[in-house]
Amino acid sequence: MDPLKLVVLDGDTVQFDTTFGPAVALNPPVAHIAGSGQFSVNGKKVCISGDEASVKVPGVTYQSGIFMGGVGEVVIEKLQEQTAPRVVGGKPVMVKGVKFLAKLKVISKAKSTSSPPQEDPMSEYLGTGEFITESPTRSTYAG
Description:
Pfam families: CIS_spike_tip (PF19267). By secondary structure, the protein is mostly beta strands. The chain is built from no helices and twelve strands. The protein has strands at about 15, 20, 25, 30, 40, 45, 55-65, 65-80, 85-90, 90-95, 100-110, 125-130.
């Protein structure tokens, strides 16, 4: 079976890459997704399209080029091939898939060390991430 079609379940890990274009997250952003599907596998609800909106990692320290000490929030920007043709309650089931698009939203801008300090002109950076299924040997596949 295709490991990219493993169904994402409540509590599975969301691992964001540390590179967001020119910005680098200094503390690797990790979260867990909450499933809201109408059925469960091994006592865990399946994740369906839309559940990704609940994934947020606040307090991520970043730097970009000469700009240091910024803080942002990392979110899933867009799924890419992370849904299966199987539908639960009118919504597609989420699968591991390829990497999704992620966004680092700047909350507190990084600053240069020059005098006077300059602020990072960017308000967001794009990156990627992936779902890490907690039980790679489970046999719950979709599609």
